[in-house]
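User: Design a sequence. Structure:
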């Protein structure tokens, strides 16, 4: 293989790990046992709470686990319905199914790619228990409209903020607004612990219930050893992972700034093409987890051709999430035309925090060449 002809690989994401993360992780591995076995976990929860402006946080082994625990804590169960957007990663829908409830998939808005509040309201039935607002790719759901609907019908409003670290809605951070919020620290996310997540809430009662559920049903106030009061879950984060998380939260502004720099560089490089990218509406901040381009409707675009061009240039591009309704796993009542249409016209661009400008230009050239060569 000739090393001259193969340009270095541009990965889709990768974490930003410095000496701080490795020092904390090594310290946790060497000393974080015995009476110190929860030190980094408690510190990580406390720093994350502070960053977000919420009263309670519970570190978990995944974002999926945080969602599952929170929904179980709200009592979501068989016969209930939870409304969420059709365009989503399966992780948002799976906990609903695990609890025996039904995910009700509705359409998204064409500009934010997030829940269409009118579609949400139209899908409400007497069985509806909650609205799951997923802030896709850093873009924010319309939290004002969704809060009004949730209030009007007596529903829980849950935020899946796994992709929305750094996103702010009218002065409030994504994940801190709803009944509870869930975050993911998977290796592809803006801050990472390898695998991991966080449940956050302002609600004291819900926090206590989720704390008990998260500890195999053992209440914190229980004095008897090994005494569960109910069947719970085991979705805990380890101290070594939390140590990495502590370093990442200390660097959170820098990490979000890196994501924003990458997005802005793409926006400039791709200016003039018939596409739209992640919006940033007035009085909001987009954490831009994943710079994504959607080719305008009616413009010829062959997504497979772009993926091939990326492959040839050693660039790791990813398709936009498929509508969950296209997976043969769910029954769907509404046509969700916007979701279906966007998904085929869109692609995620590589976006790790310290992606070099030269790499952004290389990706942009491949995009331009494909869009301009289409018949
Ligand atoms: C990553 C992600 C999750 C799941 O998080 P895990 O940590 O992988 O379990 C859930 N929802 C959304 C929107 C995500 O992007």
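Assistant: Done.
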């Amino acid at each position: 293989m000739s090393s001259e002809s193969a340009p270095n690989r541009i990965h889709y994401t990768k974490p930003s790990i410095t000496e701080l993360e490795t020092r904390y992780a090594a310290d946790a591995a060497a000393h974080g046992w015995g009476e110190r076995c929860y030190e980094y976990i408690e510190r990580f929860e406390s720093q994350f709470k502070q960053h977000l402006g919420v009263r309670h946080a519970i570190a978990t082994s995944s974002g999926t686990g945080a969602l599952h625990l929170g929904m179980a804590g709200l009592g979501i169960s068989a016969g209930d319905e939870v409304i969420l957007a059709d365009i989503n990663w399966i992780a948002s829908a799976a906990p609903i199914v695990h609890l025996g409830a039904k995910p009700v998939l509705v359409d998204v808005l064409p500009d934010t790619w997030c829940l269409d509040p009118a579609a949400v309201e139209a899908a409400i039935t007497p069985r509806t228990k909650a609205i799951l607002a997923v802030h896709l790719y850093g873009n924010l759901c319309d939290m004002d409209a969704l809060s009004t609907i949730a209030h009007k019908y007596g529903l829980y409003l849950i935020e899946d903020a796994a992709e929305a670290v750094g996103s702010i809605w009218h002065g409030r951070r994504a994940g801190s607004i709803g009944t509870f919020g869930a975050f993911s620290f998977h290796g592809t996310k803006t801050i990472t612990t390898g695998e991991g997540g966080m449940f956050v809430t302002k609600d004291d009662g819900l926090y206590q219930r989720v704390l008990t559920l998260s500890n195999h049903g053992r209440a914190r106030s229980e004095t008897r050893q090994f005494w569960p009061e109910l069947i719970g879950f085991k979705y805990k984060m380890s101290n070594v992972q939390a140590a990495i998380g502590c370093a990442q939260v200390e660097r959170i502004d820098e990490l979000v700034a890196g994501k924003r720099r990458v997005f802005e560089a793409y926006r400039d490089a791709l200016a003039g093409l018939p596409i739209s990218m992640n919006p940033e509406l007035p009085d909001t901040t987009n954490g831009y987890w994943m710079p994504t381009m959607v080719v305008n409707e009616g413009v010829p675009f062959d997504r497979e051709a772009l993926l091939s061009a990326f492959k040839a240039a050693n660039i790791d591009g990813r398709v936009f999430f498929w509508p969950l309704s296209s997976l043969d796993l769910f029954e769907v009542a509404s046509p969700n035309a916007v979701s279906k249409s966007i998904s085929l016209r869109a692609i995620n661009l590589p976006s790790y925090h310290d992606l070099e400008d030269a790499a952004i230009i290389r990706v942009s050239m491949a995009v331009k060449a494909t869009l301009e060569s289409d018949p």
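Residues 252-269 form the longest helix (18 residues). The pocket of pyridoxal-5'-phosphate is lined by residues 62-64, 89, 91-92, 134, 160, 162-163, 184, 186, 197 (CB under 6 Å).
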